[in-house]
Design brief:
The complex is a heterodimer of chains A (about 300) and B (about 200). With about 300 residues, chain A is of the alpha/beta class. Chain A contains ten helices and 13 strands. The longest helix of chain A has 27 residues. The model of chain B has no long low-confidence stretch (mean pLDDT about 90). The chains are: A alpha/beta (about 300), B alpha+beta (about 200).
Chain lengths: ~300, ~200
């Protein structure tokens, strides 16, 4: 079992921590160096957590659990208009990103209005490619409830809804979780109270993701997503030249590879693991709805009969 | 006169009204409109659904002409030129842009920070230059106001709209469904009540 962790500390000697985590069988997912500070997002084997903690203390860094690490989250706004952007929507997306998630913003074509809102098939499929969706709705209780009755039709991933009124999750139809105190805010969220609201959202999404993790652990994937990432990085050198943010984005039970599907899917399907299996035996390589990227979904143990 | 003497957001949904109030405040200050709106009343009923936005405006200064901030006179004796001596530098850029567009850059000289010389026949153009409109703050303010109300404040789903706009008031009635006559009447009534308050 790997634990998602975030390390914040000085850039000096941080490579020692990276080496330690890799030696322990963990994975470094993301490394951001900002001037003299470094932020590492990593997966650490739960049994060796104490060793990593000791090392980070030695380097005078801070190690915290980042439950959003390794997940891809869709933040969905009813449209891409002034009503929702740049504030609130970008604030939420940025805040989640700081906590280790990869967020993609989705602006719906016809997401407005409680009576006329709808989701197109393309939008539905695109949102379903993520681990969690966050719907950022508005000010009025009646509108949020009415809208929730039909807007999320066909979405199979957990749905977190935000809005102004304090509602119980049970009152919002089809929602996995509801977080209040948001609403349509047209200024940068930076007051302590607003930051607490964002913290609450992160906490709720973290819980939702932990539930997803538990669900996945019941029938674990034949190959761990970070392992797929590592093998692609080692065997497909072109990924280094990809200028997309996070060329290989981790998801709960797969990865998104930002390379054209037509050109690379065979190469990826034929990636070999040291255990003697190829990628197509342990995962499905699919075309993604996002541009012409590749979506890899690991097969569960119940289908393949083994875990590598 | 004080800014925003009346600022009421009325709604059966109390939390919604509070958030709407803060979003109107944000929008007005973002577009520097808080001094323009004198009295403001909003009525929202998400169940109906209807959104009424009524405000009395204080548009302030009328159009600014060249003679308001500069001395316009004939130039040096015997030369075909008009000399403009600026009192305020605030509008220099806009003025220069207008003059360049009209006479071409070759015919405009600026020997000093506050002096502009235009090469043209003074007898013909002097009066016209004095009356030249440099800025129309009222029109700009109204444009910004419409931007604020129609594109930022009224909920996006409320696509059916009716509006009234004059130099003294603005009224928007918006809904997701066909507008009902009683909503329009309510809008008019709110404007009237604001006017009564103003004159009281």
């Amino acid at each position: 079992m790997l634990e998602p962790m975030m390390y914040v500390g000085g850039a000096y000697k941080h490579s020692q921590l990276i080496e330690l985590v890799e030696d322990l069988g963990g994975y470094i997912l993301q490394k951001n160096i900002m001037q003299s500070e470094v932020v590492l997002l990593m997966l650490v084997p739960i049994n060796d957590l104490a060793i990593v903690e000791k090392k980070s203390k030695e380097l005078l860094g801070k190690l915290t659990r980042a439950p959003l690490t390794g997940s891809e989250i869709a933040t969905v706004a009813p449209t891409l208009a002034y009503h929702h952007l740049p504030h609130l929507d970008c604030d939420v997306a940025e805040f989640l990103r700081k906590q280790g998630a990869k967020t993609n913003m989705v602006g719906l074509a016809r997401g407005v209005g409680k009576r006329i809102c709808q989701l197109t098939a393309f939008e539905r499929d695109l949102i379903n490619e993520h681990d969690v969706s966050v719907f950022i709705l508005g000010n009025y209780e009646h509108c949020i409830i009415e809208k929730s009755k039909k807007l999320y039709e066909g979405i199979e991933i957990p749905i977190v809804v935000t809005g102004a009124p304090e509602l119980r999750t049970e009152d919002v139809p089809n929602a996995t979780a509801y977080v209040g105190n948001f609403g349509r805010i047209l200024h940068h969220m930076r007051h302590s109270e607003e930051l607490r609201t964002l913290d609450k959202l992160v906490e709720v999404i973290g819980k939702v993701l932990d539930d997803v993790r538990k669900e996945i652990a019941k029938d674990p994937p034949s190959v761990a997503p970070p392992r797929i990432k590592k093998e692609i990085e080692e065997q497909i050198p072109e990924i280094v030249d990809s200028l997309h943010p996070l060329p290989i984005t981790l998801q709960m039970n797969g990865v998104r590879v930002k390379l054209p599907y037509e050109e690379y899917h065979e190469q990826i399907e034929n990636i070999e693991f040291v255990e003697g299996v190829t990628m197509k035996e342990v995962a499905r390589v699919l075309p993604s709805k996002m541009r012409n990227f590749i979506l890899i979904k690991a097969l569960p143990k119940s289908e393949t009969g083994f875990v590598i | 006169m004080e800014q925003l003497e009346t600022f009421i957001v009325e709604s059966p949904d109390a939390t919604g009204a509070k958030t709407t109030r803060s979003l109107i405040q944000d929008t007005l200050s973002d577009l520097s409109l808080s001094r323009v709106v004198g009295r403001l009343k909003v009525f929202v009923d998400p169940v109906e659904p209807v959104f009424i936005f009524a405000a009395l405006l204080r548009l302030g200064s009328p159009a600014i002409k060249l003679k308001d901030f500069a001395k316009v006179d004939m130039g040096a004796l015997g030369k075909d030129e008009v000399k403009i001596e600026l009192d305020k530098e605030m509008y220099t850029i806009k003025l220069l842009n207008k003059l360049w567009a009209k006479y071409g850059k070759d015919n405009i000289e600026q020997p000093d920070k506050k002096v502009i010389v235009v090469k043209t026949d003074p007898l013909k153009d002097l009066d016209m230059l004095r009356e030249l409109v440099i800025e129309e703050p009222q029109q700009e303010v109204l444009d910004r106001l419409i931007d604020a109300i129609a594109l930022r404040i009224i909920p996006e789903g409320f696509r059916v709209r009716k509006h009234e706009l004059s130099n003294t008031h603005v009224l928007f009635v918006a809904s997701e469904d066909t507008l009902k006559p009683e909503w329009l009447a309510k809008g008019k009534e709110i404007i009237e009540s604001l006017r009564r308050e103003e004159h009281a």
